[in-house]
Amino acid sequence: MQKLREHFEAITPISDLDFELIKPFFASKKVKKHQYLIQEDDHVKFEYLILSGVFRAFYLDNAGKEHIMQFATENWWVSDYVAYFQQKPAHTNVICMEAGEVLCLTLEGREKLSEALHNMEHFFRVKLTNAYVAQQKRITSLLSGSPQQKYEEFAKLYPDLMQRIPKKYIAEYLGVSRETLSRLYSANK
Question: What burial letters (b/e) apply to 14-52, b meaning 16+ CB within 10 Å?
Answer without folding.
Answer: beeebbeebeebbeeeebeeeeebbeeebebebbbbbbe
